[in-house]
Amino acid sequence: MSHRPHRRLDATGVRCPEVVDLARDAVEAMQVGQLLEVVADDPVVFLDLPDWCAGAGHEVLSMEQRRDVITTLMRVG
């Protein structure tokens, strides 16, 4: 099943925890149930983004790494 994001956040070149700060700002302008795609290249995002999502009520649908780029698809809670 393919999920098309409602919004895409390019956070390449940004380090955590700033990636989480940008994601937090992005979801504030979104509705519950919408999908946000976060693209980052800081490997710490594998820890920080799911941890923040769990605490904030958002759902990580997928996280995948291709070369140095990590793509996270999350549903706004």
Which features does this protein show?
77 residues; alpha+beta; 4-stranded mixed beta sheet; 4 strands
Please describe what this structure looks like.
The protein is an alpha+beta fold and 77 residues long. It has helices at residues 18-28, 45-56, and strands at 7-11, 35-40, 59-66, 69-75. Strands 1-2-4-3 form a four-stranded mixed β-sheet, covered by helices on one side. The protein is globular and about 30 Å long.
C-alpha termini separation: 20 Å
Order of strands in the sheet with most strands: 1-2-4-3
Low-confidence stretches: none
Strand content: 25-35%
Oligomer: single chain
> Mean pLDDT, rounded to whole units?
96
**Annotation field: number of helices:** 2
Largest sheet: 4 strands, mixed
Residue share in helix: 25-40%
Rg (CA only): 11 Å
**Strand/helix succession:** EHEHEE
**Number of DSSP E strands:** 4
**What would you call the structural class?**
alpha+beta
Task: Give the gist of this structure.
The protein has 77 residues and is an alpha+beta fold. 30% of the residues lie in helices and 34% in strands.
List the helices and strands and how they pair.
Layout: E1 7-11, H1 18-28, E2 35-40, H2 45-56, E3 59-66, E4 69-75
Parallel strand pairs: 1-2
Antiparallel strand pairs: 2-4, 3-4
